[in-house]
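Holo prediction. Input below; ligand is flavin-adenine dinucleotide.
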Amino acid sequence: MSFSFEVFPPKADKPLDNLLDTLEHLYVFNPDFISCTYGAGGTNAGRNVEVCSAIAKSGRTIPVTHFTCIGNSREDIRKSLHTYLDKGVNHILALRGDFPEGWQGTRGDFNYANELVEFIKKNFPEFCIAAAGDPEKHFQADSFEEDIAHLRVKQDAGADYIMTQLCHDVEQYKWWVDKIRKAGVSLPIDVGLMPVLSKDPIIRMTVSNGSSIPRELAEIIARYGDNPEDFKKAGKEYTIKQIYSFINAGINGLHIYSLNRWKDVTDILNESGIRNLNTSAAR
Ligand code: FAD
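Structure of the complex:
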């Protein structure tokens, strides 16, 4: 099973130092890779390159850049991919991206992620390519069958593995894996796991993706929603249980959305015991 983190870049006007410090604390857990998000529409794309390049330079793990079709022409994409390669980054999560407010389409040369995957595979075969998968169905797809058929197209276009959207419902995840395997999707799956740390962000991030809030999590929200400290404590315990439930489901990789909160992530990993390492440097 692979083990990895996601981070996001600082805002354009903020220094990189805090994130570099966060990375140092995450390296302690010997992740197989660390991925860095990319603002759809290219907002803050420069910071994404800086972060990926810093990870590459560290020599501590593999950087995986997220990249979207939004607002990008073929030529823009070609230039960006050359830049990544020049910085030592040859792993990519190829996404369509969410439309910025008021947009109806990507306003770029590619409408869907499968076209980006195909372009990268053909023109930049040195990249290892991940594609997104949605265990609860992408919110714009009319049916699971349709969404899974589109996932299959990403596999056929050359994706090497799947990274999932957040999904708190492990039974739903298992059902989806069964469905996609029957549909011929055989790629390894890294499960994206969102730590439960604060009430409003977890609700917002969950529902904005069309994902559901299981009863156990709803109960934590109802019981501790007015008390951030108690909420975080219960949320961390819930996250540890989730980690084990996913591991028991037989996943190929665990991808922790770190939210750049290395202290909380360190607590969760140390308490879970899944990374049996000397983590004293992270404390
Ligand atoms: P697609 O695979 O293109 O699918 C989008 C929708 O179109 C789906 O409903 C699908 O069923 C349908 N579809 C797909 N192919 C076709 C086709 N050929 N014809 C017709 N319909 C089709 N967004 C960011 O902006 N930045 C990030 O850094 C970022 N990181 C992410 C990390 C992970 C692990 C995940 C899972 C998502 C991330 N996202 C990010 C969000 C992602 O961009 C959105 O979920 C987006 O809405 C869909 O992207 P996709 O690559 O799944 O698109």
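Residues 258 and 265 are 6 Å apart (CA to CA). That is the main takeaway for now.
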